[in-house]
Amino acid sequence: MPTPLDALRTRCLALPEAHEVEAWGEPTFRIRNKLFAMVASPHNHHGAGRWAVWLHCAPDNQRALISLDPTRYFSPPYVGKSGWVGVWIDRRPRWREIEPLIRDAYKRVAPKRLGAMVE
User: Fold this and answer.
1) What are phi and psi for residue 88, nearest 5 degrees?
2) Cα separation of the two ends of the chain
3) How far apart are CA 26 and CA 61, in angstroms?
4) Tens of pLDDT along the chain (119 residues)?
5) Amino acid 1: pLDDT
6) What is the distance between the alpha carbons of residues 104 and 66, in angstroms, rounded to a whole number?
7) Which of 16, 43, 47, 50 is the most buried if burial means most Cβ atoms within 10 Å?
């Protein structure tokens, strides 16, 4: 059975030219070395005992998601003030809701040509 990290990795690396880099002891996902997603594992203080992904997000979208469902979304430390949103991915994650957020995070940092390749 795939782990939350396996499921996330599959989705992130399916995007054009996306690659994985370990940083701060955790996987990060990038396009041309610009971060669009970071993992917070349950094994460090950032994950607080749970799997999560931190996604590049517009500040307004971050606030809306957290207001909509604070049990699934949160403002992550360090990058939350810049609009990134945290998403818990360990307890029955709703990948159909998370996948558009991953694509949006990717498009926020990808060159326009690559961003246009993503639905």
Assistant:
1) -70, 130
2) 28
3) 25
4) 678 999 999 999 999 999 999 998 899 999 999 999 999 988 776 656 789 999 999 989 999 999 999 999 999 998 999 999 999 998 889 999 999 999 999 999 999 999 999 97
5) 67
6) 16
7) 47
DSSP codes joined into one string, 36-67: EEEEE-TTSTTTTTS-EEEE---HHHHHHHHH
Q: How many CB atoms lie within 10 A of CB 34?
A: 12
Over its C-alpha atoms, the chain yields an Rg (Å, rounded) of 13
| 85 contacts 62 by C-beta, under 8 angstroms | yes
* Sign of CA pseudo-dihedral 63, 101, 71, 48: negative
